[in-house]
Amino acid sequence: MTEEAAKAKADAMGLMMYFWGVLITLAQVLGLAFVLNHASASVAATCAKICAVIAVLIALPLMAYGAIYGTAYPVKLLGIDFAHILIGYTLIGIILSFFRGKEAIGE
Hints:
- By secondary structure, the chain is mainly alpha-helical.
- The protein is globular, with a radius of gyration of 17 Å.
- 74% of the residues lie in helices and 0% in strands.
């Protein structure tokens, strides 16, 4: 995507671009919290592992569709995008563990 195309997209979407960005992030966090709740995970390391596995088994394949079959971005950039998702999901797992009781911090 060129700089001009990015500016045109941002101009066309306006503030809705930011609204959708926040909504997408919120949906991911709520989904991970839902899975952690059903797994009864409360320890930070366990929550981080579960979220990392979700990144590998769900997020990566979904991102791969866009890279392989679509025009979302070149396959070469899939690794960079996946690293971002993997780190983000792992951190979300750790952060959510702090809201799951004293066991989350090792007490």
